[in-house]
């Protein structure tokens, strides 16, 4: 059961639209700029809060190198116009980085070490194209057979789950189609309006004729991934990408993406001092390891633990954002835990909406926080599978 010295409240939550990588609408926008945009949008949701009251910014990023700036949290803070007194720490738990950032921020609040902390995530898979690039580890890790799966690409782990859990190609494609259908229906119904922050995309290209740099500016405010043109027939035609006789395709995998999300986490004292209205309370967070070669099954272990910590039963959770890294792993988790399909990803998931790795947990948390209020639900959850073999889950309560 949860034992907190004090509660951690979320008073603002926003995200950028998600672009396709590597050639989508945000591909030329740097991840630190995406983060800065999200942070400015976040502060605009709490105009009564003096920015100097923000103590730290904890930011998830799965590939914090190169243009992501090693400590992208600090760069994003400075770019956003927040005062330099605001700190900045980048955390990495691969695909659960953004969710872990929220948990760290909440812990700082709950233990009384801070009153106002930003938790966020940012990732540009366009600018740091890691998928398919091999990573090296100490060879000693392979001395234990059970670690061998650490060498698998994410798609190969999805094939492993599909085969061990008997998830058919047809079921994966049907799940993927449903993700697109739900995302498009939610967009049509204006469901994303509270959470999405329009981003101005600036493009500069040399014009050789005039010998000048031509600048164009465009505001983007919708996720790029959902496809109205998809169908079971179109999905069935796609070839497996990760194994010759496999079932995981570009259509039933999450899309490579760019995006950022951010939440403002505060103590009860800060609510009163700054006259802030809470949207939600962060209730519990859990992480469990699983065999690396079936990393997608991670939420199956993390969800029961997060529920236990919260003292809640599964049927009390009215909205679950289950990261659709691949249809195969999402279906395996849903079947093993008997998750209600009506409660899981009511607005579509990463297959349709995209999955900017370290940002996704923060993006999905922004979705949950707003969805609980719009749909008058009490508890919601964000759960992620994590490469190298982990699952993470966080529970939110509308207040
Ligand atoms: C812990 C975790 O979360 S692990 C997850 C981490 N993330 C990942 O591993 C990313 C997984 N995804 C990927 O690696 C990539 O998306 C891949 C390799 C599966 C596919 O990459 P790409 O080939 O660049 O995808 P792309 O979007 O171009 O699609 C390939 C083709 O399928 C088609 N396609 C994709 N989705 C659909 C669809 N829903 N309906 C119809 N056609 C589709 C595209 O139109 C394209 O066709 P074309 O070649 O005729 O243009």
UniProtKB/TrEMBL annotation:
One of its GO terms (biological process) is fatty acid beta-oxidation. The keyword Glycosyltransferase does not apply. Residues 9-268 form the Thiolase N-terminal domain. GO terms for cellular component: cytoplasm. It is an enzyme of class 2 (transferase). One of its GO terms (molecular function) is acetyl-CoA C-acyltransferase activity. Its EC number is 2.3.1.16. InterPro entries: Thiolase (IPR002155), Thiolase-like (IPR016039), Thiolase-like_sf_Thiolase (IPR050215), Thiolase_acyl_enz_int_AS (IPR020615), Thiolase_AS (IPR020610), Thiolase_C (IPR020617), Thiolase_CS (IPR020613), Thiolase_N (IPR020616). Pathway: Lipid metabolism. Keywords: Acyltransferase, Transferase. Belongs to the thiolase-like superfamily. Thiolase family. This is acetyl-CoA C-acyltransferase. The lineage of its organism: Bacteria, Pseudomonadati, Pseudomonadota, Betaproteobacteria, Burkholderiales.
